[in-house]
């Protein structure tokens, strides 16, 4: 997606530890117009696939999921990382290692929000080692839902998550794939 690639080139910063900082527009301060166009692009790619729910993980996926759901006209449900007294009934759980926080989380999602009749589109801001996605897929598997697709804003193509998901046969669309980045340059995969 040209618009997203241009924005990454203009405002992204490469930080130690292979971290691409895009907090000016994607995952801290939010450019809602850009997010809306991202949602529209996911709808172009997955709109005919019978999606009944958008699934993501807190925190950074939520805004993207909401803007995407506006185009699909379906609900958003997100996996929670924090333990909460506000979650009742039975829950699906899985363990996720957070890339940026460098620690493991138990994620939870109330069972009542996913049913085997659902076909979900999973969205997130980043795909790196694929740990967050594996946790979400584990929850989907426990719930017996069909995974209709995976929509990612920025995939770091030099880390293994994307290749593993494609090899597993998922319909994965990454709107920008960074194949290389360092202090002086950043290149995208031609798609
Ligand atoms: O493919 P992975 O290696 O799992 O990396 C991608 C995940 O890492 C980030 O989440 P993070 O744990 O940093 O939390 P945040 O959503 O609160 O920013 C990002 O939002 C993805 O969910
Ligand atoms: O803002 C972010 N930048 C990254 O490089 C990254 N990798 C996983 N999750 C990430 N979030």
From TrEMBL:
It is found in: Cytoplasm. This is Xanthine phosphoribosyltransferase. It catalyses: XMP + diphosphate = xanthine + 5-phospho-alpha-D-ribose 1-diphosphate. Its EC number is 2.4.2.22. It comes from Gemmiger gallinarum. GO terms for molecular function: xanthine phosphoribosyltransferase activity. The keyword Cytoplasm applies. HAMAP family: XPRTase. Xanthine binds at residues 20, 27, 156.
């Amino acid at each position: 997606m040209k618009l997203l690639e241009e924005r990454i080139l203009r405002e992204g910063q490469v930080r130690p530890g292979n971290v691409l900082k895009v907090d000016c527009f994607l995952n801290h301060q939010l450019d809602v117009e850009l997010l809306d166009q991202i949602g529209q692009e996911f709808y172009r790619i997955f709109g005919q696939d019978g999606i009944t729910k958008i699934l993501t993980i807190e925190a950074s996926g939520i805004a993207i999921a909401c803007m995407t759901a506006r185009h699909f006209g379906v609900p958003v449900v997100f996996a929670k990382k924090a333990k909460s007294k506000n979650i009742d009934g039975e829950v699906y759980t899985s363990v996720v290692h957070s890339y940026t926080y460098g620690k493991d989380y138990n994620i939870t999602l109330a069972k009542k929000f996913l049913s085997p009749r659902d076909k979900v589109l999973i969205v997130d801001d980043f795909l790196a080692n694929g740990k967050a996605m594996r946790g979400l897929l584990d929850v989907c598997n426990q719930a017996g839902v069909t995974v209709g697709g995976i929509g990612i804003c920025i995939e770091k193509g030099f880390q293994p998550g994307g290749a593993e998901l494609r090899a597993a046969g998922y319909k994965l669309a990454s709107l920008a794939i960074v194949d290389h980045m360092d202090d002086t340059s950043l290149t995208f995969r031609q798609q």
